[in-house]
Amino acid sequence: MSSPASGKKRHGKLVSQVITLAHGGGGKAMRDLIDDVFIEAFDNEALNTLEDQARFSLSDLQQHGDRLALTTDSYVIDPLFFPGGDIGKLAICGTVNDLAVGGAKPLYLTCGMIIEEGMPVETLRQIVASMAQTAAQAGVMIVTGDTKVVDKGSCDKLFINTAGVGIIRTGLELGADKAQAGDAVLVNGMLGDHGAAILGARGDMQLSTDIQSDCAPLHELIDVILQAAPHTRFMRDATRGGIASVLNELAEASRVEIEIVEAKTPIRQEVKGFCEILGLDPLYLANEGKLVIVVPKEESDAALHAMKQHPLGAEAARIGTVLPGGRPGRVTMQTVFGGKRIVDMLVGEQLPRIC
After folding, report:
1. From CA 248, how far away is CA 141, in angstroms rounded?
2. Residue 95 near residue 165 (C-beta atoms within 8 A)
3. How far apart are CA 271 and CA 286, in angstroms?
4. Alpha helices, DSSP H, located in the chain
5. Nearest alpha-carbon partner for 286 in 127, 137, 93
6. Rounded mean pLDDT, 70-98
7. Dihedral sign from CA coordinates of 51, 57, 60, 65
8. Would you say residue 292 has pLDDT above 80?
9. Strand 141-150 and strand 291-295: pairing?
């Protein structure tokens, strides 16, 4: 949280009900904000020293694996709160998932906050509490960070940047270039929920929906998959650009053709209806709790069965195959009408500020 002083945990208290420029100025107001909001919620030994960096023993890290994984992401979602989550939960889940899909055990996160002057302190408290709760659920610690306050109008309420550190399991090699002919393509459940939930929450289209975001940390589900299918080739969380973008990146990197089957691709009727009204394609809608997984054909049944036993994989499905002898870099879909269509990489942005 980058305070001007360091030492043991302090107990400063905020007086103001809204964030002011003084809360980013490096003085007592900033110290009270860090103590009362961030340290109070994220309380742990590594953070409470309030040094400019968190420090860890290499021998402790090596107990989890033999390679370091590092990721970073920024979150600018609008609105801050949406059905199924908020920007704080999203920031933790997104960073945890980016580590986990590479086969890493997520361990430590950083948190950078850019706060607009005038933001209610209570709103910030709710978001920070959500981050703390989600981090505890995911088994990670927020160990260092930074706070900036900008003039009113210079950002939209709150932007969050997180970085994450994890350790990759010894001997595990996952990558977008590893898909092979005959491999099965799996997903762990209903697609497009997050994008539909955000669009509904914005209220621009005057559409009523009960769709909830699928925002969730996926590290435990990934552990289950890797145990059931130890030769898993690839995993990716299908966020911006949806599964269509992930599959195109995979087909291009592995120089293979991938075919998916529309009838086997799990999408809620409500999401399909949403997309039909607005002229959107659910294959490109963002997800925050969905994986695309590629496993050898002989391990696909075990992987699918294992996923279905986990709450975040109960609606898992095999949606496609890596074709032998196909056109490298192409993704196609067998439609419910018996035809076939090309599934291209997303051009432009269906829904801006989705995460």
Report:
1. 34
2. no
3. 12
4. 28-33, 40-42, 45-48, 58-62, 87-100, 121-138, 193-202, 219-228, 242-254, 269-278, 297-308
5. 93
6. 97
7. positive
8. yes
9. unpaired
Q: Tell me how far apart the alpha carbons of residues 267 and 210 are, in angstroms, rounded to a whole number.
A: 15
Regarding pTM above 0.90, the answer is yes
The residue length of the chain stands at: 355
Q: Is the dihedral of CA 33, 38, 41, 46 positive or negative?
A: negative
The answer to whether the beta carbons of residues 355 and 288 sit under 8 Å apart is: yes
Dump pLDDT digits (tens) for 212-261: 999 999 999 999 999 999 999 999 999 999 999 999 999 999 999 999 99
Q: Give domain 184-342's CATH superfamily.
A: PurM-like C-terminal domain (3.90.650.10)
- Cβ–Cβ < 8 Å for 141, 44: yes
Tokens of 50: 């309030």
Here the tokens at position 155 are 């950002």
Please count the other Cβ atoms lying within 10 Å of the Cβ belonging to residue 75.
19
Strands 331-334 and 257-261: parallel
CA 348 to chain centre: 21
pLDDT at 99 over 50: yes
3-class DSSP assignment, residue 317: strand
Query: How far is residue 234's CA from residue 245's CA, in Å, rounded to a whole number?
Result: 14
Q: How many CA atoms lie within 13 A of 105 on its CB side?
A: 15
Backbone angles phi, psi at 311, to 5 degrees: -55, -30
Chain centroid, CA 297 distance in Å: 27
**Res 6: pLDDT:** 43
Angle at CA of residue 255, ends 251 and 258, nearest 5°: 40
Structure tokens at 171: 């001997």
What is the domain partition of the chain in residue ranges?
A: 21-168, 184-342
What is the DSSP annotation of 287-314? -SS-EEEEE-HHHHHHHHHHHHTSGGGT
Assigned architecture for domain 21-168: 2-Layer Sandwich (3.30)
Strands 104-116 vs 141-150: parallel, antiparallel or unpaired? parallel
Helix-strand-coil split of the chain, %, nearest 5: 35, 25, 40
